[in-house]
Write a structure and sequence with these properties.
The chain contains five helices and four strands; from the N terminus they run ββαααβααβ. It is mainly α. It has a single domain (13-181), classed as Hypothetical Protein Ta1238, Chain: A (Up-down Bundle). The strands form two sheets. The protein has a two-stranded antiparallel sheet. A two-stranded antiparallel sheet has the order 3-4. Strand 1 (12-14) and strand 2 form a beta hairpin. The model has no long low-confidence stretch (mean pLDDT 91).
Length: 186
């Protein structure tokens, strides 16, 4: 089987269920942003492996959940039995946020993205996650009746961006790298 089909050469693609839409459709944009986030998380793992090997299973679990979310977003007419991100997935992220936050000093200032390489990659992943969240919100607002977006999709991405911020702080703290505090200038 060839990798290319030529079916997208005129700017259209298939959604799950067979509907054809233009590649700039809000639904395609939303799952495309989630796909980019998944790729950035894979890239983040490259920096995490030597410095934080216990993170790999968690990041890979999140990547799995993002794949489920992408499939959910690519399916306009969802069945109740189809996999989706759940309240349990969101609770898991919240637990990891709490663990990371408890391991670092309380946040008293805004911090600039950066520090060590792992933290910088996590900050980039956080910003891509926020963009994905905005695209999913756009889709949710524009979705036709019967093609709605599950509220858990937005909540999951919102919590994930918080987790990526908490992990960036933890990565700097664990490495002894000071956070870069933002000092506003007048």
């Amino acid at each position: 089987m060839k990798l290319y089909t030529k079916r997208g050469d005129l700017g259209q693609t298939d959604l799950f269920g067979g509907e054809r839409v233009f590649k700039d459709d809000a639904r395609v944009a939303a799952y495309g942003e989630v796909d980019e986030l998944n790729a950035v998380l894979g890239w983040t793992l490259c920096a995490a492996a030597p410095n934080a090997p216990d993170w790999a299973p968690r990041v890979q679990h999140i990547q799995d959940r993002l794949f489920v979310l992408g499939a959910e977003l690519a399916t306009p007419n969802r069945r109740e039995s189809a996999p989706s991100v759940t309240e349990a997935d969101i609770a898991e992220l919240e637990g990891w946020i709490d663990q990371a936050s408890d391991a670092v000093p309380p946040l008293r200032n805004f911090v600039l993205p950066g520090g060590n390489e792992l933290a910088a990659r996590l900050h980039l992943a956080r910003t891509v996650c926020r963009r994905a969240e905005r695209a999913v919100v756009t889709l949710a607002r524009q979705a036709a009746p019967g093609q709605s977006v599950a509220p858990s999709a937005i909540v999951f991405l919102n919590r994930l961006s918080d987790l990526l911020f908490a992990w960036a702080r933890l990565a700097n703290h664990a490495a002894g790298t000071p956070e870069i505090v933002w000092h506003p200038r007048s």
